[in-house]
Amino acid sequence: MGVQDSLSIDSVAVVPEYCYRCGAALGTHEFEGTELPWCPDCNTVFSRNPVPGVHVVVHDDDSALVLDEPIPQHEGVLSLPGGHARPDEAPKDAVVRELAEETALQADPADLRFVTVLHADLPEVAFYLLTYAVERSDVDGDITTEFEDGEAYFAPLDDLRANPQQIRDSDLDRIEQALEA
Ligand SMILES: [Zn+2]
Fold first, then answer.
1. pLDDT tier, 2 (very low <50, low <70, confident <90, very high otherwise)
2. Ligand 1 centroid to 120 CA: how many Å?
3. How far does residue 11's CA lie from ligand 1's centre (Å)?
4. C-alpha–C-alpha distance, residues 63 and 136, integer Å
5. Which burial class, exposed, middle or buried, applies to 60 when counting CB atoms under 10 A from its CB (0-12, 13-18, 19+)?
6. Which fold has domain 51-180?
7. Ligand 1 centroid vs 24 CA: distance in angstroms?
8. pTM of the full structure
9. What is the sign of the dihedral through the CA atoms of 132, 135, 136 and 139?
10. Cα 125 to ligand 1 centroid, rounded to whole Å
11. Residues carrying CATH 3.90.79.10, the chain
12. Which residues form the Nudix hydrolase domain (predicted)?
């Protein structure tokens, strides 16, 4: 039997250096025209695939809920509530959980509208970020931020447009789409 006959393929989020099954150092193997990381011990190629995540635009007239959180991944710019779905979680359930964790606001999955998918292809990892919108009037509770020195507030779209350095283009674009829809 040749290598190709018993080859298995596995999906990973980040290009690995070692096989997570065997611990062996990986080589490479041509698969469907691309050189992929390959484990010589268990004859598995590793294909890097996007990781799904969710974001939500909570909006009120022409304002959207934004977070100002002191964490490195946000690189000093505002962000939308959201995060990664757990394996047993539907996207809307992930939105509801992340919104509650980050702002203490309570949403009902039935009130979430789908807006768009943002494909973020970063050097190490790629994401498909499913983006939903919900009206502020359909969300319950008072805002309490997850981080002591973090902030969450409704920012008028005009203010965000006037200060584009404080928010990523892709986030501003998604807020605009949510407000139009
Ligand atoms: Zn292996």
1. low
2. 29
3. 13
4. 10
5. middle
6. Nucleoside Triphosphate Pyrophosphohydrolase (3.90.79)
7. 6
8. 0.88
9. negative
10. 21
11. 51-180
12. 49-180
Q: Tell me what the mean pLDDT of segment 8-16 comes to.
A: 94
- pLDDT higher than threshold 80 for residue 72: no
Dihedral-angle region of residue 104 (phi above 0 means left; psi in -120 to 50 means alpha; beta otherwise): left
CA–CA gap between residue 22 and residue 52 (Å, rounded): 27
Sole residue written with tokens 């100002």: 68
CA distance 71 to 92: 24
Q: What share of the chain is helix, strand, coil (3-state, %, to 5)?
A: 25, 40, 35
What is the C-alpha separation between 70 and 76, in angstroms, rounded?
7
Q: Which residues are 36's β-sheet partners? A: 29
